[in-house]
Model the fold of this input.
Amino acid sequence: MTTTWIIAGLYLLSGASALLYEVCWMRALGLLFGATSPAAAVTLAAFFLGLAAGGLGWGKAAARSTRPLRLYGGLELAAAVFACLYFFLPDAYRLIYPWLFERLQADYAWLLAVKFGLALAALLPSAFFMGGSLPALSRLTISHGLSGWYAANVLGAALGALAAGFVLPGWLGYGGTYTVAIALSAGAGLLACVLPMPPQPRAAMPTSPQRLAWPVRALALWSGLAILALQVLWTRMFAQVLQNSVYTFAAVLTVFLLCLAGGALLAHGLTRRRRALPEDAFLLLTAAGLAVAATPTLFLEATDGLQYIGAGQDWPTYVAAVLWLVLKVIGLPLLCLGALLPRLLDDLRQGGALPQAVGQLLAVNTAGSIAGALLAGFVLLPWLGLWESIRCLALVYLLAAFGLAWSCAWRERLWQPVAVGLTAFTLLDVSSVLPLRLETDEKLLWLQEDSAATVAVVQKDDGQRRIKVNNHYTLGGSASRRQEALLGYLPVRLHPQPQQVFFLGLGTGISAGGALPAGAGRITVAELLPGAVTAAREYFGAHQHGLLQSPKARVVPDDGRNQLTAAGQRYDVIVADLFVPWEAGAGNLYTLEHFQTVRRRLHDGGWFMQWLPAYQLSPDAFAGIVHTLQLAFPDVSLWRGDFSVERPVLGLLARARAGPFAAALPLQDQPALFGERDIVPLAARLVAGDAALRRLYQNAPGNRDDRPVIEWQAPIAQRRQKTGLVSWLTGNELLSLLDRLHSDGKAMDDGMPVELRHWPEAGYHLHRAQLLQADGYLSAAEAELAGFRALSGAVAD
Done:
């Protein structure tokens, strides 16, 4: 019994460390190669390819070994040693990747191949040794069955997902998390090497097992393909109603792996009933087909037609609600899906197969996993859409059950998968349901589903249009076109010579379009979502000032951070659009390393404007972003994107060279662009200069790639704000910030020429008047308006 538990513990440690390795490498290479779906796909494929190669190669060695426990220990130690490349290769890649990118960016296929090669060089060594761990230990567990140990391995992966998603990176950073993974691998390896274990008789383990029968290989391949394809599809499904932070993705993955571990235990129970493999496989395939086909219907019912989950719930309650939603929608299907491969492994034991056969089976299954992830993201979603893709995989499960019954001459069972299929596809038909929720005053104009996201354009009854991404409003719309245009206009108009301008994010294209009337020379826009580019071109061209038709502008369908990191182009102005702080990946655009890259891509007199949605940021998060930006730039000033009370937009203007603004700073916005009522001069939008911000935020925490504080704290703050425990930087919080900066006394002395210094003061009074009026302090608001009029000579409503 002691040996049994020790082996189970080794399996668990292997699973946990492998998942931690995968998470950290996916993040490290994602920061280097970009956050696009193809870049993530080649990284995942490289990791899985290493596992498959390890299963094949070390399965043969394990079959010949008389001390499999020591072999396992050596494999884990070797994996830990080669895993240390994580601390060196990304830095080396940052030196050579820009050179490769410059030469291959015109040929995307070759560039993607280079990314795959670099990922393979980084991941293959450690993944190759990790892939041999299960075949090695199978020598010791043949008499006990493999499904139970496989369950321990997947359970370890689930614990690794939980630790990587909720605990370790926030506590230790990603470097510390990876160190924990190395420690787990090395600890398991050392333990295996020192444990006393008698040699295994070589004669009992033939070195040349027969080749796996084609039905077994086919089932193993299909199991891997379907599970990874469904993981991609179900993750997209849950993204329509969740917060889409690092936590919610980790929650989905954790439940996914826990249910797969439960499926392995189910397989163990089926094996103990001593029925033939074809009978169990037929049962699992039929049940899986029905359960998978039911998931869209269950999901729509559980979310009341794609309503967002957890309205008004605090953070712990929200996480519990997410876990419960995932479990009740895909728990049963995953039990059936997860039982097939372990049941095949158990049958290898009963047939006297060796670790070499285990390695072959795992390699075939892993190859299917690679194909499944690629098939779902790049073929099924664009071709069939979300609901039909899930139903297609369910249909293939039922067809596999039918084919198995036919090959086994079970004529009396042929009707069962047929009946299940007819029932599922008739009673559970959701093909007419859109994969997004429309309000009563909205209609759908356009929708595109691809590997990156589900992007839609909706129009309200008043004719205003908005872009929805994964059922969330995130990319703006025509109703706010004047403010969006100002976000591109202001930083370009302020710069004396904006010949080369770069925008991180296209969205509707209205913000980038605002740079054209501001005098921009050439404009480059990087947009991560292909669907957003199409939506902007087809439905928002009337508000873009001719951006997408202008010979001055080009749109690059790529991750903006990756473009700035790899491309050698330098710019006069770089503008970062509004990003939802709590969404996974958005925090990478607020890190010190990213801001340092931006500075390197600016000319000596270049400017960088980081726009921030104050209505989605806590004061602490805002302080962290300001401090991080000031670590990268010598001069950072704070500007108003508007004078809004409920949805204020603030801008941080970082300049590569400190100094006062030019005396020729433009004073008047263009009423034709921004409306007759918005007659506030640009100079009045300055809130505070660099010195005042440094005095206020010098002790704020920095945000780094290794410790992305924003990405980890913003999702929690978003839920706490729902329950009143945290306030956004709006209303009284914004008023308090303005007052603190104004009380500094020298808030604008280091930024504005003396002859223009009254304009920021006037802007302060106007903004304060708006905030006081919203709170019902009408007399105080009128006094502030009087101060504004006295300084500006303007008449404000």
The chain has a mean pLDDT of 86. The first strand starts at residue 442 and ends at 449.
